[in-house]
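Consider this pair:
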Amino acid sequence: MNKSELIEALAAKKGLSYKKAEEIINVIFESMTNALLDGDRIEIRGFGSFVVKDYQAYTGRNPKTGESIAVKSKKLPFFKVGKELKEKVSG
């Protein structure tokens, strides 16, 4: 499911216009993005949680040439699936 399919599903389920459903989805995603940028953790019970993880710099290798390359430190969003969702998916 992509973002526009999610918007269409919300509009159909709640009898909203596509524009109103799009506005709601955009507010949700924007709020989640801002929370992660502020260093907050997002937890949606029964679904999972999002956090930003810090990764240290390290020396990697170019797989084609074998040459060593420096990989800078970085921050990346990380999703951990919730127990209920994991159980539903695994059957």
